[in-house]
Amino acid sequence: MIELRSEPYTLVSRPDIQETEKRFRALLHAEWCSGIMFNVLVHRKFAQPIEYDGMLWNHESMLFIEYKDSVTAYRRMNAKRAQQVDDSSGNIARRFGFDGYSYILVVNGIPEETKKGDVVVIPLERLPDYKPNFQSTRPELDYVHKLIAQYGREENPADVTRDKAVHELSVLRDMIEQRK
């Protein structure tokens, strides 16, 4: 059993292999990554653990995968829970030093790609060809870069007014406060 820590998270792998997950593992495309953990429980103080069926990473990004072996199991997961796990995935990747992350649901038996809330859901058969769309773990910094590019350009410069600056700083403050 492996245990990795970066406060406040502890990642613990389970040694057992579920029979229903063997096909999922066989179809997983891992050429792009430098590390994989299966059956990972993520513990955070005073919070319910999160379980991922697969975590893959390279030097920049992490891919978190939850596998559902039937459409019924997929339907039991509500969109709010999927969004919470997606948000937690970004926080976990950030705490472990990754710039990007993606969380997907892989479902055996669905006919085509769909979404559960904002979370991408793909059919198991599409897993070998799936290319993750990584999101930034630091949207606040991305927003600052956007503002610098917008206000620093020589051609067609943006007008800076007091109201606009206060608005932009308020948006940035709200983004930072959401991360707490």
Question: If you had to describe this structure to a student in words, what would you say it looks like?
Answer:
This protein is of the alpha+beta class. The chain has five helices and nine strands. The protein has helices at 22-27, 71-76, 79-95, 139-152, 162-178; strands at residues 3-6, 9-13, 35-44, 50-57, 61-68, 100-107, 114-116, 119-123, 135-136. Strands 1, 2, 3, 4, 5, 6, 7, 8 and 9 form a nine-stranded mixed beta sheet that branches. A hairpin with a 2-residue loop joins strand 7 (114-116) and strand 8. The mean pLDDT is 90.
In short:
With 180 residues, the chain is of the alpha+beta class. The protein is built from 5 helices and 9 strands. It folds into 2 domains: 3-136, Trna Endonuclease, Chain: A, domain 1; 139-178, no CATH class.
Q: Which key features would you list for this structure?
A:
5 helices; 29% strand; nine-stranded mixed sheet; alpha+beta; Trna Endonuclease, Chain: A, domain 1; 9 strands; 33% helix
Number of domains: 2
Overall 3D shape = elongated
Counting DSSP H or I runs of 4 or more residues, the number of helices is 5
Instruction: State the order of secondary-structure elements, H for helix, E for strand.
Output: EEHEEEHHEEEEHH
Largest sheet: 9 strands, mixed
Fold topology:
Elements: E1 3-6, E2 9-13, H1 22-27, E3 35-44, E4 50-57, E5 61-68, H2 71-76, H3 79-95, E6 100-107, E7 114-116, E8 119-123, E9 135-136, H4 139-152, H5 162-178
Parallel strand pairs: 5-6, 6-8
Antiparallel strand pairs: 1-2, 2-3, 3-4, 4-5, 6-9, 7-8
Helix pairs in contact: 4-5
